[in-house]
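Notes from the pairing session

We agreed to fold both candidates in a single pass and log them together. This is the raw record for the first candidate, unedited. Please don't reformat it; downstream parsing expects exactly this layout.

Candidate A
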Amino acid sequence: MIGTIINTATVILGSAIGLAFKKRVPEKAINVVFQGIGLFTICIGISMFLKSQQLLVVVLSILIGGITGGLLQLDKKIENFSEKLKKKVSIIDKRFTEAVVTSFLLFCTGAMTILGAIDEGLGNGSELLITKSIIDGFASIALASALGIGVLFSSVPLFLFQAAITLTALFFGNFFDAAIINEMTATGGVLLCGLGLNLLNVTKIKTVDLLPAIIYAVLFAYIFNSFIN
């Protein structure tokens, strides 16, 4: 899992640099950066969504994933966990939870995350994840300067998420074909669009409650492909 370790390290380093900049950059400039991140996130989400070849898979995944996340109250549980973590490590930052969730979704729902972690699990090398690491490193600088220390803490779920995909690919590599990856990516794109709208303060979508949709995308894509083939 060399690629995942490098990726985690670059996010930590980038976050540290961003936090140093945050103290020196005027509040107005940070707000502009924040809006830019929101717009960029929506654009990434749209480009990911367009990869879908089976829109019904994405629709069902979002609907059932949202119901599942709502019943499990994932958003509330993550918020409570973040608040406990803040108190435990004595962090005073109102945007801590938002920073962790926002950064995690940006770093972990893209095609490079999924493909890179799968490639590493299949023994095809870490080149894709290393490339992603460079991108995430620069992104974490901007995110940390706008959102604060929560971006640095997002490196923990990032590591766990990518490591889980890599280990899954190690044991079930043949399961992840291009069709499944496309629908996972497209579903993640919808989540990123929602996240971008939140960043722009257009609305407040509970993107955490929608996270199970990515798991359902794998399941439904597999089922649909089995029927087609």
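Candidate B (folded immediately after A)
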Amino acid sequence: MKNIFRNILKGKTVIVGIGNIMKSDDGFGPRLIGKLKGKIKAVCIDSGSAPENYVGKITKEQPDNILIVDAVHSGLRPGEWRILEKKDIVKSGFTTHDLSPHLFIEYLENETKAGIYMLGIEPRNVSFGEEMSDSLKESLENITSAIKEASNA
């Protein structure tokens, strides 16, 4: 199987993990950043649940590509994920956060001219105090391995 991350990780890449680790599966993005930071060539940013606070840091990097990682409600089975491109992201309003993905992405695109992608993973549970579900833990390991492999290719 072709590693889907190879094209996304070409050139200078910023990976932004969005989510709240106190809310079970919603913390997927920051947990992925924790596993990748310092282990791949990409700049890895844990933006928590306030990615708008990191637009300056992201744009300062002048990336060729930006990969946003977030839990999204898209009708998949928990732990299933897909890569969305900008046109798919702005049509949907399925993020688990208050910030409009459309506004965030439009701003980043205007400021960086980068290719913008979102890794959207279907959460099982986004309740406070819950541990991440097993299906997302498994996906976390698989995605971490695939990104590391693509980054070092």
